[in-house]
Structure formats: structure tokens, C-alpha cells
Specification:
Number of strands: 9
Order of helices and strands: HHEEEEHEEHHHEEE
Distance between the termini: 31 Å
Strand content: 25-35%
Low-confidence stretches: none
Mean pLDDT: 95
Number of helices: 6
Radius of gyration: 20 Å
Largest sheet: 9 strands, antiparallel
Length: 217
């Protein structure tokens, strides 16, 4: 057996006491439960609980996925941001639908969100960018996300110039920076169980409001 396969077969999941979850007590709408689970993940010491997998599809319908950061979750939906000229930005412009996946292994929990994607106003995008760090502003000012890079030296040169500008102009604008909001059509909450009797609760939006339903694991 190769080192890779030996390591793969030796791994275990949820080597901790998992929290209880009674779907019958869950709120009627998903946002309140998401907030509660997020705060529980933070309290349990989950590393980077605000990171999520973002899935989109390109013009040919081929799926694409990457890790981004959650910027907010409110009555409008789940917020993240990127350049409109990036691969994800172009894909969302052509097909404004996305799926999000959160995984918090410290509690054996996942949250999945699917829905239509809208964009915030330029003013919201500007406020979002400038609520973050100087490094985040510098990265946004560097731009050219997803383009082919000639060399690491070219990146270092562009990044250094962007850092200098971010420090000198803390209110500098990055015109392609865009706030995206996933308006949820479905939100699923997954609670892992040591005996593999996992609990899955899906909130599904209908014209009459949210419907809650259990799913087989």
C-alpha cells in the first residue's frame, strides 16, 4: 500500500463528542438556525467557520468550485464578494445560480445553500471592500483574478504596487469588486452521528413560505 493510501485509510472523522440536534425544535425559516449553528461552531473552536465552498457552472454547464469567505447572512441571503471579471464573476453573470457548502467538522455539521444570485449596488461593494483589511484592499487592487500569470515575479511586482496604493489611498476603489447575494431556495442542515444515523433537515422555499422536510442520510 502506498503512503497515500495508507494515510487515507487511517483517517477517522468526528473524533469528538457530537452535539445533539432535534429537527422538531428547529426554526421555521433557515436563517435563524444558520446563525445559531455558526455561533456554535465559533464557540467550539472551529477553524475559519466563515469559509465556504462556492459552486457555479460555466457557459457549457460544467461545474466549478472554490473556497471563499462569507461576508454576511441576512434576510436577503448569503453574501460573498469577488471581482466581476473573475472566473466566478463571469460564470455568475451568465448563469446566476450557485450552491454554497459549509463544513464544520468540530461538530460534525454541514450546511448547504442553493439559490439565485443577485449583485449588490456599487455603494455596497465599496463599503464591503473597505470594511476589510489593507491586505484585502491590496489584493482587490491587484486585480486580474483568474487570468494567466506570466511569473511569480510579475505577481510580486503588481502586489507591491497595490500594497503601496492601499496604504496611501485607504478609500481607493476597485471598480470590478462586486458583492454577491445567494437568495436561498433550499437550505439543508446536516448533523453527523457517530453511528451514521445522520440527521438532514431541509428548508425549501415555496410560494407559501418555507417547508421543512427530513431527508434520508
Amino acid at each position: 500500500m502506498t503512503d497515500f493510501h495508507h494515510a487515507l485509510r487511517s483517517l477517522r472523522v468526528w473524533d469528538t463528542e457530537l452535539p445533539a440536534f432535534d429537527p422538531a425544535t428547529a426554526p421555521d425559516e433557515p436563517l435563524a438556525l444558520f446563525h445559531a449553528w455558526f455561533l456554535a461552531a465559533v464557540a467550539a473552536g472551529q477553524a475559519e467557520p466563515h469559509t465556504l465552498s462556492l459552486a457555479t457552472a460555466d457557459e457549457d454547464g460544467r461545474p466549478d468550485v472554490r473556497t471563499v469567505m462569507l461576508h454576511n447572512a441576512d434576510a436577503r441571503g448569503w453574501h460573498f464578494a469577488s471581482h466581476s471579471t473573475s472566473a466566478k464573476g463571469r460564470q455568475l453573470a451568465a448563469r446566476p445560480e450557485a450552491a454554497l457548502g459549509f463544513y464544520w467538522p468540530v461538530q460534525g455539521r454541514q450546511v448547504r445553500v442553493r439559490g439565485h444570485v443577485t449583485t449588490g449596488t456599487p455603494e455596497e461593494a465599496h463599503a464591503d471592500l473597505h470594511a476589510r483589511t489593507t491586505g484585502a484592499l491590496a489584493a482587490a487592487l491587484t486585480g486580474r483574478q483568474s487570468e494567466v500569470l506570466d511569473s511569480p515575479e510579475a505577481l510580486a511586482e503588481a502586489s507591491e504596487a497595490a500594497w503601496r496604493r492601499a496604504e496611501a489611498e485607504p478609500d481607493a476603489d476597485a471598480p470590478t469588486w462586486t458583492l454577491y447575494v445567494v437568495e436561498p431556495a433550499e437550505v439543508e442542515f446536516f448533523q453527523g452521528d457517530a453511528r451514521r444515523r445522520h440527521l438532514r433537515l431541509r428548508h425549501r422555499r415555496t410560494p407559501d413560505g418555507w417547508v421543512r422536510e427530513l431527508l434520508w442520510p
